[in-house]
Amino acid sequence: MSFYVNQLTKPICRKYSKSIYPNFTPVINSLSITTSKSNVYTVVNIIGDNFSPYDTYVNFGPYKNIEIVFISSLQISFIVPINSISGNYSVVVVNVYNSNLSKKVNFTYSNNLIYSNSVNYTIT
Questions:
Q1: Is the pLDDT at 10 greater than 90, yes or no?
Q2: I need a labelling partner for 2 at 20 to 30 A (CA). Which of 51, 63, 66, 89 fits?
Q3: pLDDT value at position 16?
Q4: Which DSSP string do the residues of 71-85 spell out, in sequence order?
Q5: Pairing relation of β-strands 2-4 and 13-15?
Q6: Cα(47)–Cα(14) distance, integer angstroms
Q7: How far is 80 from 33, CA to CA, in rounded Å?
Q8: What percent of the chain clears pLDDT 90, i.e. is strictly above it?
Q9: How far is residue 11's CA from residue 5's CA, in Å, rounded to a whole number?
């Protein structure tokens, strides 16, 4: 946001250079590791943007709704499912948008699922 005064010295006006609406779409920039062995306890840190402390989870290939640890809006972590077999898996972060990004009060409101880009993860 920048401020300016016009030539006639009228009151200060605001000029917005960016949209005033927040972006709720999560973005994955990188994973702390992209390969692990099957049947091994593995924590993966996700670095990115727009992660929410409320109702955010990870989809790991066929494993859906994996709980995360919220570190900041730029970093979360999750545990790779221990029973994952060897293969390639897509990692996707999902924010559940309930029109105000606050904690659930009940289960009756409608949710919009907002998906991140997909990043490949390999289990050997």
A1: no
A2: 51
A3: 43
A4: EETTEEEEE--TTPP
A5: antiparallel
A6: 33
A7: 11
A8: 63
A9: 7
Mean pLDDT of all residues in 59-68: 97
The pTM score is 0.75
The residue to which tokens 């990004």 are assigned: 101
How far is CA 41 from each of CA 80, 84, 98, rounded to the nearest angstrom? 7, 11, 33
Question: How far apart are alpha carbons 22 and 109 in whole angstroms?
Answer: 21
Amino acid at 27: V
The CATH superfamily holding the domain 27-123 is: Immunoglobulins (2.60.40.10)
Digit-coded pLDDT (tens) for 71-91: 999 999 999 999 999 999 999
Contacts of 2 (CB under 8 A, 6+ apart): 14, 15, 17
From residue 14, how far is each of 7, 9, 67, 97 by CA, in Å?
15, 14, 41, 30
